């Protein structure tokens, strides 16, 4: 009852609820579309779409440039200063839009090289998804602790995609129709977010000095680097599978990955909920319990996925993807590894102030991933299963590195 009466706890509980709703809704949206699109497009065309999306995700992270993680702090720190908030919002919008334009230049530069040249028109179209990333201010809603608006806007845009996909996407020839639906959905999301800033919060946009924008840009670099490197394992694997094996394998890997990542959502939500408390109290006993519980329930989830792998792949991807049940069984090892990654990273290293070590763990594991890819290339051993094993090895290295830093810095010493 005391917690319920506490205004701060009510805000945390409300925002946690909306964050959870956003996460589960986004995953649910993807599951429904995957199940439908694989059956409509077939594994090859769906694999091509997934491969192209894996390329574009790196551009979208570049456009966001860490602001979706870091910019909320600016809003929190300057709530009572509307002029400062106008400066922050204007700066971030300008920077993101310039990065969006620069992304087209980069994409044009790589368009002359294989394998990008064969699918460059699809990549150009998908890059238009960056408009939603530019204009939708999820970081602002987190800063003002009003995630209800963000949840409603995302719900509307996702509902548009699902409804229109079922109506207009009926055959393999409708691939570009689906891509345009995604683009329109992101534009709707961005427009509603921009309108909300103007109408609900009276944000005034203006040109900011280059020096000011550079300060915001520079402060976000480390957050961009960490987020960018976190994509290497999954989207890098999809990219390599598409080049060296087949688009059918891309579909199998992507479907199995989505099943795995829905299983790690509870661990992600737990670390988001507990992180503020551990940051404030530095409660090492609570941290030890979290590590033990994450490992325990991660292993339970692994066992469940391992046992029902054929049923899950058949349900989500149809009969064509049942043959990738063994892939799902292997990838299920990521569940306990990722659960530990969340806790050791955010609740241990970041909460106790070891930001450098947190970023170093990402850098080390990413560099080793790239090194092993090069070794496989030299030895002519880039195969589907070798890339799967490398995907798992990379997360193991990440867990080991973070565990090493936790022990070395005596985060767990009681």
Automatic annotation (TrEMBL):
Transmembrane segments annotated in the record for this chain = 21-42, 54-76, 88-110, 122-140, 152-169, 175-195, 216-244, 256-275, 287-308, 328-355, 362-379, 385-407
Pfam families to which the protein is assigned, alphabetical = Polysacc_synt
Query: What InterPro entries does UniProt report for this protein, alphabetically?
Result: Poly_Biosynth_Transport, Polysacc_synth
The cellular component terms of Gene Ontology attached to this UniProt record, alphabetical and capped at eight, are: plasma membrane
List where in the cell it is found.
Answer: Cell membrane
Chief location bin:
membrane
**In its keyword annotation, does this UniProt entry include Transmembrane helix?**
yes
The way it spans or sits in the membrane comes to: Multi-pass membrane protein
Q: Which UniProt keywords apply?
A: Cell membrane, Membrane, Transmembrane, Transmembrane helix
Q: What name has this protein been given in UniProt? A: Polysaccharide biosynthesis protein
This protein's species is Polaribacter dokdonensis DSW-5
């Amino acid at each position: 009852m005391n917690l319920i009466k506490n205004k701060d706890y009510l805000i945390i509980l409300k925002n946690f609820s909306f964050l959870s709703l956003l996460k589960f809704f986004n995953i649910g949206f993807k599951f429904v579309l995957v199940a439908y699109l694989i059956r409509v497009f077939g594994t090859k065309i769906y694999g091509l779409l997934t491969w192209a999306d894996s390329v574009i995700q790196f551009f979208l992270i570049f456009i966001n440039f860490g602001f979706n993680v870091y910019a909320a702090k600016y809003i929190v720190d300057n709530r009572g200063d509307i002029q400062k908030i106008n400066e922050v919002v204007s700066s971030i919008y300008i920077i993101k839009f310039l990065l969006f334009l620069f992304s087209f230049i980069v994409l044009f530069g790589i368009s002359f090289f294989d394998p990008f040249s064969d699918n460059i028109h699809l990549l150009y179209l998908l890059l238009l998804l960056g408009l939603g990333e530019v204009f939708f201010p999820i970081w602002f809603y987190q800063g003002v602790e009003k995630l209800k608006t963000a949840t409603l806007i995302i719900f509307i845009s996702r509902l548009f995609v699902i409804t229109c996909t079922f109506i207009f996407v009926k055959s393999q020839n409708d691939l570009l129709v689906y891509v345009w639906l995604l683009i329109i959905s992101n534009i709707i999301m961005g427009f509603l977010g921009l309108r909300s800033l103007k109408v609900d919060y009276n944000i005034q946009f203006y040109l900011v000095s280059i020096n000011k924008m550079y300060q915001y840009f520079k402060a976000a670099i480390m957050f961009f680097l960490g987020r960018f490197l976190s994509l290497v394992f999954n989207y890098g694997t999809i990219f390599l599978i598409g080049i060296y094996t087949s688009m059918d394998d891309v579909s199998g890997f992507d479907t199995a990955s989505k099943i795995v990542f829905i299983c790690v959502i509870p661990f992600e939500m737990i670390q988001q909920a507990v992180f503020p408390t551990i940051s404030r109290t530095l409660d090492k006993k609570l941290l030890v319990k979290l590590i033990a519980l994450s490992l325990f329930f991660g292993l339970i989830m692994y066992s469940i996925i391992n046992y029902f792998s054929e049923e899950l792949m058949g349900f989500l991807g149809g009969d064509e993807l049942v043959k990738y049940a063994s892939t799902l069984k292997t990838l299920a090892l990521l569940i306990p590894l990722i659960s530990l990654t969340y806790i050791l990273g955010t609740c241990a290293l970041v909460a106790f102030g070891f930001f450098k070590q947190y970023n170093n763990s990402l850098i080390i594991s990413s560099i080793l991933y790239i090194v092993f890819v090069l070794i496989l290339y030299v030895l002519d051993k880039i195969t589907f299963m070798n890339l799967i094993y490398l995907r798992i090895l990379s997360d193991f290295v990440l867990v080991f590195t973070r565990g090493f830093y936790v022990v070395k810095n005596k985060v767990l010493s009681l």
